C-alpha cells in the first residue's frame, strides 16, 4: 500500500469545510441584517463610538497578510522554500498585529463600561445594546478564527521546515492559506458593517 | 466463513502481523470498523431513547401522576428528543451504513479522509458523554425540549449549558461525515462508476452530505448563541435588550428543518436499494429518484419557517413558507411513485428487508401526507403543538427512518457478518413492530385533532382513552423491537453462514466476500453495468 | 484535512480522480500553476483602493444607500479575494459550482428571513 495524495480531493474537502465556516458566521450576519433593518438609527449612533482608525488599520493589516499568504504559496510552488517560509511567518506576524490592535480596541471599549451585560451597556437604548452585543460576538468569533488560522499557518511553517510541505506536496499550506483568506473575507464584511455603514 | 478467509482476513479479524484488540477498533481508520463503531453506539443509544419513550408513555397511561413527577417528565422528554435526534437519528444510516457501504459501493478502498472519519466518531462519543453529563451535573437535567427554545432555555436553571455544547460537538461530527462522503463520491469512484451508475443509496448520501455541510453550522452558531445568552448575557434574543426571540426560531429551523432530510434521505436511499433487489427488476425512474434526492435537499432549505406559523411572524412569511412547503412534497412523492412502480409486475420475493421497506412506504406516506396538513397554514393553526404533530413526526422519523434503518440492518446483515438471521422471526418481529407502531401513534392523530397539547404532563379525562391505547401500543412495539434485536444478535452468533450475494443484488458490495476483507477489493473493480442490472446475477446463498 | 490524511491506493496511473468524471477534474491541475507575483500585487492594490473608497465615501450620507454602497464594495473585495487569492479562478467547474451553492444557500437563509421581519 503506497501513500496516495489526492490533491484535488484535499482541496474539495477544505472548501467544504470553509462553507461550514461561512454558514457559521452566516447565522450572525443574519441577525445583523435583521437588527440593522429594525434599528437603523441606533446602529448609526452606536457605530460612531467605534474607532474608524483601528478598524481601517486592521483592514489594511489583514488584507496585506492575505497578500503575503498568496505570495507564500506562489513562492513555494516555484520552489523558493525559504522565501515561502519567511512570507508565512510574516503572515502570522500580521495576525499578531491584528490581535494586538483588537485587544486595545476592546480594552478601550470595556474601559468605558461597554461590554455584554455591563451596567453601562444596559443603560443604552435597546438598538445600541444589540449593536454592541453583535459587535463583541462577531469580532470575538472572528478573533478566535484569527488565532486558529495563525496557529495553522505556524504549523504549516514547521512542516515546511521539517520537509513535509514541499514544492511538490504543498496542499497543507494551500489549505491553510484558504483558511486564512476566509478569515480575511469575513473581516472584509465585518469592517464596513460595524465601522462604516452606520 | 468463506474459504478464502484464511489468506484475506475479513475486517473483523486483525490484520496479519497485528494483535487486534480494542485499540485496533477505536483508533481504526478502516471505514467498515468505524461504521461498526457507529452502528453499535447508535443501537445502544436507540435502546436508551426507546426506554425513555417507553417511560414517557407509561407516565401518560392515565391522567395525573403515575410513575414520576412533572420535572422528571420534562427532563425525560427533553432527553428522549436529544438522544433520539442527535445521537440516533441524524448519525444513524449515514454514519453507520454509509460508512460501511458507501466506499464499497463505489469500488473504493476507503473514504477520502480516513483519519477525519475516526475523529468524527470520537466527537460523537464526546458529545454523547457530555449529553449524559448534562443530566447528572448542575442544577438538574435540561427541561427545555430538544428544540431549546428561548426565552425559556436562556433562563431555566437546569443544565442547558452542557447540553448545548454537546449538541454543538455532535453537529461538528455530523459535518465531518458529510464532508467526507461528498469528497469521496467526487474523487474515489472506481473506473466506469459514472454518476448515472451510482447506487441510489450513494446519491441519497451525497444529497445528505450537502445538507450536513451547509445546514449544520447554523445549528452550531444557534446553540453557541444560547450559550452566550446564558453565560455572557448578550441578550440577542431578549426583548428587554432589543432582541427578538422569534429570530432564535428562524435560526434553529434553518438547520433543523433540513435536518429532517438528513434523517429521511438516507433511509429513502436504503429503500431504493432494497426494492429492486426483491422485485428482481431495475428500479423504475433511476434518474428521477437520484434527482429528487438533490431536489429534496435543495427545497428542504427553503421551508424552515413552516414550524413557526403561530410564532407571531408576519402573515406574508406564513403564506410564502406554506406555499413552499407544498413544493417539497413533489420530490418526495416522485420517490414513492417510483418505488411502487418498481414493484409493479416485478418478480417479487418476500424477504425480511422487503417487509421493512414496505412498512417504510406505508408509514412514510401517512407521515408525509399528514405533513401537508401541518404545512398548510390554515389547518396548522388548529393542530400546532398538539399530539397531531407528535404523531406526524413519529410516522416520518420512526416509521420512515426507523424502519428504513431496520430494513438496512436486515438487508446488509449477511454482508456484514457473513451469516443469516432467522428469517421467520425477522418477519414476525417486523409485523409485531408495525402493528405496535400504529397502535402507539395513530391514536395521537385523533387526540391531537381533539386538542391534546404536546409535552403536557397531565391531561383532561376526555383524552384518557387515546392515551391508554397509545401506551398499550408502546408495549407491543417494544416487544417487536426487542424480538428483532434479539434475533439479529442471535444471528451474529449462530446464524447460518452465507456466501457473497445471498439476495442476488447487483451493487458492488455484494461482489466482495462476506464479511468484506480489510481493503475491500483485491484489485480495483472496473464497473461495466448499472447498479440494478440483474442480468446474469444469481443469488449465492 | 491535509494531504496526509489520504493513505490510499487506487492502483497505478488512475490519476487524482479515479472516477470517470475525473476527466475534467484531473485535467484541471491549474492550481499547481503559481499565480504570478505581479497579479497578486495588483489584486492587493485593488483591495487597498477599494478600502480607501469605502472609508472615504462615509463622509457623504446617502441614507439607505450607505449600506448598499458599503456592501457592494465589500462584495467586490470578497470577489477579488476568492477569485485570485483563493485561486477559484483557476479551479475546475466542480469547486466553482460548490462555492456558488454555499453562498446561494446563505443568501436564501438571510433573504427568506426577511419575508418575516420586513412584513411584520
Which secondary structure elements does this structure contain, and how are they paired or packed?
The complex is a heterotrimer of chains A (198), B (541) and C (120).
Chain A: H1 7-38, H2 40-47, H3 52-77, H4 81-111, H5 119-122, H6 126-161, H7 171-196
Helix pairs in contact in A: 1-6, 1-7, 2-6, 3-4, 3-7, 4-6, 6-7
Chain B: H1 23-26, H2 31-59, H3 70-89, H4 92-105, H5 114-136, H6 152-155, H7 160-187, H8 200-231, H9 245-279, H10 286-299, H11 315-343, H12 352-375, H13 377-383, H14 387-417, E1 419-420, H15 423-450, H16 464-494, E2 496-497
Antiparallel strand pairs in B: 1-2
Helix pairs in contact in B: 2-3, 2-4, 2-5, 2-16, 3-5, 4-7, 4-8, 5-7, 7-8, 8-9, 8-10, 9-10, 9-11, 9-12, 9-14, 10-11, 11-12, 12-14, 12-15, 14-15, 15-16
Chain C: H1 22-27, H2 37-56, H3 65-85, H4 93-117
Helix pairs in contact in C: 2-3
Could you characterize what this model shows?
The complex is a heterotrimer of chains A (198), B (541) and C (120). Chain A is mainly alpha-helical and 198 residues long. Chain A has one domain (27-196): Four Helix Bundle (Hemerythrin (Met), subunit A). Chain A is 82% helix and 0% strand. The longest helix of chain A is centred in the last third of the chain and has 36 residues, at 126-161. Chain A is elongated, with a radius of gyration of 19 Å. The mean pLDDT of chain A is 93. By secondary structure, chain B is an all-alpha fold. Chain B is built from 16 helices and two strands. Chain B has helices spanning 23-26, 31-59, 70-89, 92-105, 114-136, 152-155, 160-187, 200-231, 245-279, 286-299, 315-343, 352-375, 377-383, 387-417, 423-450, 464-494; strands at 419-420, 496-497. In chain B, strands 1-2 form a two-stranded antiparallel ribbon. In chain B, helix 9 packs across helix 14 (387-417) and helix 14 (387-417) packs antiparallel against helix 15 (423-450). Chain B is globular, with a radius of gyration of 23 Å. By secondary structure, chain C is an all-alpha fold. Chain C has one domain. Helix content of chain C is 60%, strand content 0%. Chain C is built from four helices and no strands. Chain C has helices at 22-27, 37-56, 65-85, 93-117. In chain C, helix 2 packs antiparallel against helix 3 (65-85). At the A-C interface, helix 1, helix 3 and helix 7 of A face helix 2, helix 3 and helix 4 of C.
Amino acid at each position: 500500500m503506497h501513500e496516495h495524495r489526492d490533491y484535488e480531493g484535499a482541496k474539495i474537502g477544505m472548501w467544504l469545510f470553509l462553507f461550514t465556516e461561512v454558514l457559521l458566521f452566516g447565522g450572525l450576519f443574519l441577525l445583523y441584517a435583521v437588527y440593522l433593518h429594525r434599528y437603523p438609527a441606533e446602529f448609526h449612533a452606536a457605530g460612531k463610538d467605534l474607532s474608524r482608525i483601528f478598524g481601517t488599520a486592521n483592514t489594511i493589516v489583514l488584507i496585506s497578510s492575505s497578500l503575503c499568504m498568496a505570495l507564500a504559496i506562489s513562492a513555494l510552488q516555484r520552489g523558493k522554500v525559504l522565501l515561502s517560509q519567511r512570507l508565512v511567518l510574516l503572515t502570522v506576524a500580521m495576525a499578531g498585529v491584528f490581535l494586538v490592535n483588537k485587544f486595545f480596541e476592546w480594552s478601550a471599549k470595556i474601559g468605558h463600561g461597554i461590554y455584554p451585560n455591563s451596567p453601562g451597556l444596559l443603560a443604552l437604548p435597546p438598538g445600541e445594546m444589540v449593536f454592541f452585543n453583535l459587535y463583541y460576538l462577531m469580532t470575538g468569533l472572528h478573533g478566535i478564527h484569527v488565532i486558529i488560522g495563525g496557529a495553522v499557518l505556524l504549523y504549516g511553517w514547521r512542516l515546511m521546515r521539517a520537509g513535509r510541505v514541499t514544492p511538490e506536496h504543498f496542499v497543507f499550506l494551500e489549505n491553510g492559506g484558504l483558511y486564512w483568506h476566509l478569515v480575511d473575507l469575513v473581516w472584509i464584511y465585518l469592517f464596513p458593517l460595524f465601522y462604516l455603514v452606520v | 466463513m468463506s474459504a478464502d478467509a484464511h489468506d484475506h482476513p475479513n475486517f473483523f479479524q486483525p490484520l496479519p502481523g497485528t494483535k487486534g484488540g480494542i485499540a485496533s477498533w477505536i483508533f481504526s481508520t478502516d471505514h467498515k470498523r468505524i461504521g461498526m463503531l457507529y452502528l453499535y453506539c447508535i443501537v445502544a443509544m436507540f435502546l436508551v431513547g426507546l426506554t425513555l419513550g417507553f417511560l414517557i408513555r407509561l407516565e401518560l397511561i392515565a391522567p395525573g401522576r403515575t410513575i414520576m413527577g412533572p420535572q422528571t417528565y420534562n427532563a425525560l422528554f427533553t432527553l428522549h428528543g436529544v438522544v433520539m435526534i442527535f445521537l440516533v437519528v441524524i448519525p444513524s444510516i449515514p454514519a453507520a451504513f454509509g460508512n460501511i457501504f458507501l466506499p464499497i459501493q463505489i469500488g473504493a478502498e476507503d473514504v477520502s479522509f480516513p483519519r477525519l472519519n475516526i475523529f468524527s466518531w470520537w466527537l460523537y462519543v464526546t458529545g454523547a458523554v457530555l449529553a449524559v453529563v448534562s443530566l447528572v451535573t448542575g442544577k438538574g437535567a435540561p427541561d427545555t425540549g430538544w428544540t431549546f427554545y428561548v426565552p425559556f432555555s436562556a433562563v431555566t436553571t437546569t443544565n442547558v449549558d452542557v447540553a448545548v455544547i454537546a449538541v454543538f460537538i455532535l453537529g461538528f461530527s455530523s459535518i465531518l461525515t458529510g464532508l467526507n462522503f461528498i469528497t469521496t463520491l467526487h474523487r474515489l469512484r472506481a473506473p466506469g462508476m459514472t454518476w448515472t451508475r451510482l447506487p441510489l443509496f450513494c446519491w441519497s448520501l451525497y444529497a445528505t452530505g450537502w445538507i450536513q455541510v451547509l445546514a449544520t453550522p447554523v445549528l452550531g452558531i444557534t446553540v453557541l448563541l444560547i450559550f452566550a445568552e446564558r453565560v455572557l448575557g448578550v441578550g440577542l434574543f431578549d426583548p428587554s435588550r432589543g432582541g427578538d426571540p422569534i429570530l432564535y426560531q428562524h435560526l434553529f429551523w434553518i438547520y433543523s428543518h433540513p435536518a429532517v432530510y438528513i434523517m429521511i434521505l438516507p433511509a429513502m436511499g436504503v429503500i431504493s436499494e432494497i426494492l429492486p433487489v426483491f422485485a428482481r427488476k431495475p428500479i423504475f425512474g433511476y434518474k428521477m429518484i437520484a434527482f429528487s434526492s438533490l431536489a429534496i435537499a435543495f427545497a428542504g432549505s427553503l421551508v424552515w419557517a413552516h414550524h413557526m406559523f403561530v410564532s407571531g411572524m408576519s402573515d406574508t412569511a406564513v403564506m410564502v413558507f406554506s406555499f413552499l412547503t407544498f413544493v417539497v412534497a413533489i420530490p418526495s412523492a416522485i420517490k414513492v411513485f417510483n418505488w411502487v412502480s418498481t414493484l409493479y409486475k416485478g418478480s417479487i420475493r418476500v424477504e425480511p428487508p422487503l417487509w421493512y421497506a414496505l412498512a417504510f412506504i406505508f408509514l412514510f406516506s401517512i407521515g408525509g401526507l399528514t405533513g401537508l396538513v401541518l404545512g398548510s397554514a390554515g389547518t396548522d393553526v388548529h393542530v400546532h403543538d398538539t399530539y397531531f404533530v407528535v404523531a406526524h413526526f413519529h410516522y416520518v422519523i420512526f416509521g420512515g427512518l426507523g424502519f428504513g434503518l431496520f430494513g438496512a440492518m436486515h438487508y446488509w446483515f449477511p454482508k456484514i457478518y457473513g451469516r443469516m438471521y432467522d428469517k421467520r422471526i425477522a418477519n414476525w418481529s417486523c409485523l409485531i413492530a408495525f402493528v405496535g407502531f400504529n397502535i402507539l401513534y395513530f391514536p395521537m392523530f385523533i387526540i391531537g385533532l381533539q386538542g391534546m397539547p404536546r409535552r403536557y404532563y397531565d391531561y383532561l379525562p376526555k383524552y384518557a382513552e387515546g392515551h391508554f391505547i397509545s401506551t398499550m401500543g408502546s408495549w407491543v412495539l417494544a416487544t417487536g423491537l426487542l424480538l428483532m434485536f434479539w434475533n439479529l444478535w442471535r444471528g451474529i452468533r449462530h446464524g447460518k453462514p452465507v456466501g457473497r450475494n445471498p439476495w442476488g443484488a447487483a451493487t458492488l458490495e455484494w461482489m466482495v466476500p462476506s464479511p468484506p476483507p480489510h481493503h475491500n477489493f483485491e484489485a480495483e473493480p472496473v464497473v461495466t453495468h448499472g447498479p440494478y442490472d440483474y442480468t446474469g446475477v444469481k443469488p449465492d446463498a | 484535512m491535509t494531504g496526509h490524511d489520504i493513505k490510499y491506493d487506487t492502483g497505478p496511473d488512475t490519476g487524482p480522480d479515479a472516477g470517470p468524471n475525473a476527466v475534467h477534474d484531473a485535467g484541471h491541475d491549474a492550481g499547481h500553476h503559481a499565480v504570478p507575483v505581479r497579479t497578486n500585487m495588483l489584486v492587493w492594490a485593488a483591495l487597498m483602493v477599494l478600502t480607501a473608497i469605502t472609508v472615504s465615501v462615509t463622509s457623504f450620507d446617502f441614507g439607505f444607500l450607505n449600506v448598499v454602497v458599503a456592501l457592494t464594495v465589500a462584495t467586490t473585495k470578497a470577489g477579488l479575494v476568492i477569485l485570485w487569492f483563493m485561486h477559484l479562478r483557476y479551479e475546475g467547474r466542480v469547486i466553482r459550482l460548490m462555492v456558488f451553492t454555499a453562498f446561494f444557500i446563505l443568501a436564501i437563509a438571510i433573504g427568506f428571513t426577511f419575508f418575516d421581519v420586513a412584513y411584520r
